[in-house]
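Severity: low
Component: inverse-folding endpoint
Summary: output formatting inconsistent between runs
Steps to reproduce: submit the following structure tokens with default settings.
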């Protein structure tokens, strides 16, 4: 059984949860100790006790820690990628790619630790000096989802440590293995006791204990909209800083002048890779009239040809759905799409393989309208719907007609339309002739409307959340 990691020590509990492979339910990867309220409170107390010393540690110490973490992750990318693929169901190349991304995130913030800056400005009062500096927030609670089990924890934990905060980390229940491996690496890299703490367990217990604790100064959360609203309400009640990354219903607009192969590649990658289990997935494909029929025919053919199977097999393009609950949700939305008049043009069927896994052929709907539930609600699976529109103006209107605003894409050879879309798409990230999913690690990540709340994640903008600004006046 993998223990909790609290205050530099391994802590076992009387409860454990099996970690099973969605490609093969007979494959039990490991069992993980389940924290309760008491263990969570102990972890928070440890982080609070460690904060004064860590917050005053020098930039070289933080750099060295984060760089050592990056180096080990990169050296072990094949091993950690295989663990990720077994645990979450991404194909092995995708899983290794995510692992490398995590390493690069730690490397980036190792550099940021040496680039901490402030301002010295003159006061309007003669003889008075003014210093403007950034200080760590304090104890940061990190609550991460299951779909990127090492990259998302990395882009929360690395900046938290870079800027001198201490961390209590609760990963999603479905992916404790990658979380345990990451925190073990950080501890062995030299993190002082209490600076980083791992509490695996149910959100209703561990997550709630974090929200209830006045000693937690900030919460960085990625997950569902409903849970995000609970995080917000609890944090406002305690005047706590919070950061939310939630859902998406991302449009990919395909205009008549688009290069067809580019548009098809963007649609297949954005909608179905990582089994569609990405908040940036292209779930609404908004296509103008002249290209519509050619695009749909070819997209349906390519969707049917996608090879679904075990995440570790070399010929697999699409891995399993993460678990039985998510699979039922995907199938429910496929049923809803058909009942509301959508044409299931390709896929949507369960797939049998040699191992008992949660395999689903990606589903493509056509003849849909933007008011259908499959175009309003986040499915979070390999399900995409085509919406036919007259022209660019209608495409933009439909793209923006959603309560979400994370990512939006357009395929076009028109500089005029590309430029207009970049400015007028109501999304935090805009892609031109690229999939809506897939972002760099050194630039801001986040959305608008119901997708995100608070400061951006990743890149130098991470400092906005993980630090607070102090202004000091001096009269010599």
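Observed output (run 2 of 3):
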């Amino acid at each position: 059984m993998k223990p909790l990691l609290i205050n530099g020590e391994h802590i076992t509990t009387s409860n454990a949860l099996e970690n099973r492979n969605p490609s093969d339910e007979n494959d039990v990867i490991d069992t993980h100790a389940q924290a309760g309220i008491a263990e969570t409170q102990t972890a928070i107390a440890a982080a609070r006790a460690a904060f004064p010393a860590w917050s005053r540690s020098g930039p070289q110490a933080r750099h060295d820690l984060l760089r050592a973490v990056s180096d080990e992750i990169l050296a072990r990318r094949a091993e950690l990628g295989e663990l990720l693929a077994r645990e979450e169901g991404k194909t092995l190349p995708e899983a290794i790619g995510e692992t490398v991304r995590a390493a690069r995130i730690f490397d980036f913030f190792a550099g940021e630790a040496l680039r901490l800056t402030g301002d010295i400005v003159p006061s309007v009062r003669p003889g008075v000096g003014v210093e403007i500096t950034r200080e760590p927030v304090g104890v940061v609670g990190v609550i991460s989802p299951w779909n990127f089990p090492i990259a998302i924890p990395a882009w929360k934990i690395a900046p938290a440590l870079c800027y001198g905060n201490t961390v209590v980390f609760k990963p999603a229940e479905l992916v404790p293995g990658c979380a345990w491996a990451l925190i073990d690496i950080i501890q062995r890299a030299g993190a002082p006791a209490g600076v980083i703490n791992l509490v695996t367990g149910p959100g209703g217990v561990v997550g709630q204990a974090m929200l209830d604790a006045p000693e937690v100064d900030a919460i960085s959360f990625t997950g569902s909209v409903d849970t995000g609203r609970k995080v917000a309400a609890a944090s406002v009640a305690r005047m706590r800083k919070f950061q939310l990354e939630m859902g998406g219903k991302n449009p990919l607009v395909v205009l008549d002048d688009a290069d067809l192969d580019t548009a098809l590649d963007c649609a297949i990658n954005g909608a179905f890779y990582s089994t569609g289990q990405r908040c940036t997935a292209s779930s609404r494909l908004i296509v103008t009239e002249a290209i519509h029929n050619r695009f749909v025919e070819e997209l349906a053919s390519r969707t049917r040809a996608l090879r679904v199977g075990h995440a570790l097999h070399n010929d697999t393009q699409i891995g399993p759905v993460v678990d039985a609950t998510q699979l039922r949700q995907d199938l429910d939305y496929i049923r809803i799409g058909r009942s509301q008049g959508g044409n299931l043009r390709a896929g949507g069927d369960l797939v049998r393989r040699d191992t008992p896994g949660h395999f689903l052929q990606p589903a493509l709907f056509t003849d849909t309208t933007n008011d259908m539930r499959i175009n309003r609600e986040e499915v979070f699976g390999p399900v995409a719907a085509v919406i036919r529109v007259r022209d660019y103006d209608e495409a933009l209107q439909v793209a923006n007609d959603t309560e979400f605003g994370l990512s939006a894409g357009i395929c076009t050879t028109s500089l005029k339309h590309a430029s207009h879309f970049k400015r007028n798409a109501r999304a935090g990230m805009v892609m031109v002739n690229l999939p809506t999913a897939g972002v760099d690690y050194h630039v801001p990540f986040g959305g608008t409307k119901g997708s995100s709340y608070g400061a951006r994640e990743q890149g130098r903008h991470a400092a906005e959340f993980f630090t607070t600004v102090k202004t000091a006046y001096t009269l010599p």
